[in-house]
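Quick illustration, no need to memorize.
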Amino acid sequence: MAERIPFDLPEQWDLENMDRLQLLDYLEAIREQIAQLDAEEPADPESEDYDEWGDRHEALEDLADDLRDRLDAMDDL
């Protein structure tokens, strides 16, 4: 598997206190990481690498969903 993509939320990033522009920038960065991860999908769906890949992909998708939810909530204000 290629170099791992870091996706942990940096300590300095507090989603609760980010403004709209920061959330949009972060969402774009997460989308880019998902695209890179998609390009690195392991061929063998039965492998441990694939399981790790799937876990990382799911975590990034969950984070992207959280960011979109926060953006949607801002639109409702």
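The chain has a mean pLDDT of 84.
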